[in-house]
Design brief:
With about 290 residues, the chain is mainly alpha-helical. It has 14 helices and no strands.
């Protein structure tokens, strides 16, 4: 047998058949219908109900003293919880992604814990810790320290339910980047803090902002844990979600939807900024690859 006797059978490559028009139409209509019913329609209802009795009533519902107190307390809780989570998220992600140490996997497990624990359970944990009949309750009362039914309890509950967001955003990002840049900076004589502020932090700035954005949105919209520890003291310990619940239970629907529209606007702004940060992050990633 010679080389000329060898023949090859050339077969065309088989490509998967494209979906039929009916299949594509069904998938698109199903997806759009689900988004419309579950997301777009509720958003429209919130603003329609909020403005149903005129812009004057809408303004009065938001400028009412209890509503302003709820807004102020929400901003205070988020203003304390988000920076704390920022510091924790940076420290935890830097430790997990850049170093090896005993208990590393346990730390990652604890970071994910608030995702698997109901916020109501988180609130009950603080009641069991700081309540009047708990182990620390009598001592706190003797020192004149109020945790439950006060701002500290609300802040603690908010921190608990939101602290995974920054860390969970940064850990995979730092792990993907590796330690080459940090090692090069150290070899060139940079200190640990200089390496962190001039090498590590600039490389994760967009992911950090993304995590802070989600953390802030979650903090301002938290209901379950805060509801347990707040005591529902109107004008004192009610955040915006709790104030909305009270108005709704009092059948003051227009005022409830008016205040709820603030959280809706926050959600929409969060989505817009989230999309912008994702584009900037993707663009910076491409620049780094080039």
């Amino acid at each position: 047998m010679t080389a000329s006797d060898i023949t090859f059978e050339v077969r065309p490559l088989r490509r998967p058949l494209p979906e039929s028009f009916r299949v594509r139409a069904f998938l698109i209509i199903t997806a759009l219908g689900f988004v419309g019913v579950m997301i777009v329609l509720p958003l429209i209802v919130v603003f329609v109900e909020a403005l149903g009795q005129g812009i004057g009533m809408y303004r009065d519902a938001i400028m009412e003293p209890d509503a302003l107190a709820a807004i102020r307390l929400t901003l205070i809780a988020a203003g304390i919880a988000v920076p704390l989570n920022l510091v924790f998220g940076l420290a935890a992600s830097w430790a997990v992604a850049k170093h090896e140490f005993a208990g590393k996997h346990l730390l990652v497990t604890f970071i994910d814990l608030p995702f698997s624990v109901s916020p109501v359970i988180a609130g009950l944990i603080y009641v069991l810790l700081f309540g009047s009949h708990a182990a620390l309750g009598p001592w706190l009362d003797s020192q004149g320290i109020e945790i439950l039914f006060a701002v500290p309890g609300i802040v603690l509950a908010t921190v608990f339910v939101t602290f995974p967001f920054v860390a969970r955003e940064l850990i995979p990002l730092m792990q993907e980047q590796g330690t080459d840049n940090e090692e090069a900076a150290l070899l060139l004589g940079a200190s640990g803090w200089q390496t962190f502020f001039h090498v590590t932090l600039p490389n994760v700035r967009w992911g950090l902002l993304y995590g802070v954005l989600l953390c802030n949105a979650r903090a301002m919209g938290e209901f379950g844990a805060v509801s347990v520890v707040s005591g529902h003291i109107r004008g004192l310990t009610n955040t915006v979600p709790l104030h909305v619940e009270i108005l709704y239970n009092e059948y003051n629907f227009s005022a409830a939807f008016a205040v709820a529209s603030l959280l809706t606007i926050l959600a929409l702004v969060t989505l817009v900024v989230k999309e912008w940060l994702e584009r900037r992050r993707f663009g910076s990633t491409l620049q780094g690859m080039n």
